[in-house]
Design a protein that fits this description.
GART; alpha/beta; Formyl_transf_N; phosphoribosylglycinamide formyltransferase activity; transferase; 7 strands; 192 residues
């Protein structure tokens, strides 16, 4: 079983999907830690309800990004974290975490990267009037949604769809695809 840390900043819908996938035997992992960078984020209560260790740090209270990530790295080491899963974590990861977890940090993004990286990918897609968008799971590097793509799945944007409609369609794909892709990475790593 793989020990994972989930990094999240918000409501935690992908956190819920990961927990559900573990409980339903789809994902052979144990969430050892939730790392959150926003005090009061709803995901914190979700983790506590599942008795998952939680750390909430305000990055601005650290001297710099390296100091913040050093504290997070120590928390991960203390819990024997093998793999980091970003689930709505709204910070770029720096070398302090990237080096020890090379190719063991993944992210999910609500677009078909490289299209619409960064914040509000759904709003960007609607503004560009594209007919198709989707979901991308990728390895994390030091850029914004620039890491190597692992998996993608497209969704059609229906005529007159609102941002909420598109968000619901994307989340339905995310909540199924992310745990499946993470599990496939664990299987691949075990076979090496």
């Amino acid at each position: 079983m793989t020990n994972i840390a989930v990094f999240a900043s918000g409501t935690g819908s992908n956190f819920d999907a990961i927990i559900d996938a573990i409980e339903n035997g789809i994902l052979d992992a144990r969430v050892r830690l939730l790392v959150c960078d926003r005090i009061g984020a709803p995901v914190i209560e979700k983790a506590q309800n599942h008795e998952i260790d939680t750390v909430v740090y305000r990055p601005k209270s650290f001297e710099n990004k390296a100091a913040y990530e050093t504290a997070v790295l120590e928390d991960c080491k203390q819990r024997d974290v093998d793999f980091i899963v970003l689930a709505g974590y709204m910070r770029l990861i720096g070398p302090t975490l990237l080096k020890p977890y090379e190719r063991r940090i993944v992210n999910i993004h609500p677009s078909l990267l490289p299209a619409f990286p960064g914040k509000d990918a759904i709003g960007q897609a609607l503004a560009q009037k594209v007919k198709v968008t989707g979901v991308t799971v990728h390895y994390v590097d030091d850029g914004m949604d620039t890491g190597p793509i692992i998996a993608q799945e497209a969704i059609k944007i229906e005529k007159n769809a609102t941002a909420e409609d598109v968000k619901q369609s994307i989340q339905a794909v995310e909540h199924r695809l992310y745990p499946e892709v993470i599990q496939s990475l664990f299987i691949k790593e075990e076979s090496l």
